[in-house]
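hi support,

uploading two proteins for the ticket. first:
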Amino acid sequence: MNDSNVAERLKSYIEFKGLSYAQFADTCKIPRPSLSQLLTGRNKKINDIMVGQIHNAFPDLSILWLLFGEGPMENSASENSESGVDAGAGFSDGLFAYPSNDNFSGGKRNFPTGARDENEILKENGLRGGINGSQISDAEEEKLRNMIKELRGRIDEMKKNPRKAVQITVYYDDSTFETFFPRT
């Protein structure tokens, strides 16, 4: 990632919005000197906290575009629906789609209910009753049933001990890295 390009893209976005640098910094709750140092090149790195503050203040700004110059400058509502994320299902920040809080309760994930038996799964995938007139062997069918049973066991274990991400670290090809933490 070329950080001077990040500064140039940020300048372009600020000008596009018709804001002064001071107005932008105040809106993002970024100290004015920090923004100035980034935009002038004195500070070469943009940190995850600053990216988060910019995103909170301007959710329409594509973080993917800001950091890497990829895609359009602004996220649109239609992009969220094209990515399979509707307004009730969560949101997307241009990099990731996040589920709505309706899918979580007390920090534990609600897993889908209505388990299907192995015959339904095999039939749904064209493996039971044949596909185009072909059949699977009894040995293959038994192997698939065992795989389904094993996966169900793993799912049950995950239900008992749900996990959540506590940090994401991105390593860049210039031997730098950034660590991102979930919002609390």
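and the second one:
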Amino acid sequence: MYNFKDVLILLNQGYSHRYISSIQHISRDRLRYISSYIEAHKLDYYELVKLSNVELEAILFPKKERESIFEEPNIEELVLELKKKGVTMKLLWEEYKKDCINRDKIYYQYSSFRKKFAEFTRVH
């Protein structure tokens, strides 16, 4: 794994992408992307070098949030429902599925529904 700071210093000093690629083990395409990104966003090399590798990666390669195509279940409400006598996880999923179908929404399969539920309860 290359060090962003070293790459930025070499780019700022005017070394060729071929040279930087060979000593830092980074692709020339990635170097071109970094150079053009810095140029397009008018970023200052001297300010960038002060940041950590994690911060630099977040700036240069921001994560794109993907919107889920699935209808998210209201887990908080479901936790309360599950506490009621006679209510099972399968029953909650079937109600969620029926509601999604009635509203022309895409629903999670039972296994994914359970994973979402387990993840929520683990965190909370």
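thanks. also noticed: The chain has a mean pLDDT of 91.
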